[in-house]
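User: Predict the structure for this protein chain, please.
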Amino acid sequence: CKHSMIRKYNRRGQHEFVGYMCSTYKTHGNRVCTSHSVDYEELTDAVLLSIQREARKILSDDDVEELKKTSCRNRRIENIEKEIEFAEERKQKINKFKKKTYQSYLEELISKADYKEYTANYDKELEEIEAEISGLEKRREDDKELESEYQEWVDIDKLTRGIVIELIERIDVSEDGSICIHYRFKNPYED
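Assistant: Here is the predicted structure, written as structure tokens:
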């Protein structure tokens, strides 16, 4: 019926949560909708299995093992860190040149106009390097975050609310009890 489902509780015993049932059926009865529901354990098992199957459609066992090693990603992070280090060294050199320019100005080896021109150029270069460093640091953090998310999803064995919210758009439960899961992502290898 495409309407939302509400929590279903056991009426006998401890009044514990057992699953979900159609909200339309509960409020309006069988003249408006049919009685379709799903047990919590059955739903979580189906969703977990579906997520694992979707991952296996995209990645073979060898791919998973290779990606677990993340040597490529580690190399990329190392390269970014080297670029940051190189940019920091350039920044230090420019600051040294800037100080030497000031010394030259104080010793009257260069004119005030030349001093202003040199320092303006150095300041511009320093701004560019700062922007470059900032961009590199953001890329590094994004890569590390992606790596940790990947590690979390590749070995998924327990379903959590966060996983469901991030990966699943909606879940349809039909009258016969079949479950259809609509993901927020699309398999890039399917047409």
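The chain is about 65% helix and 15% strand.
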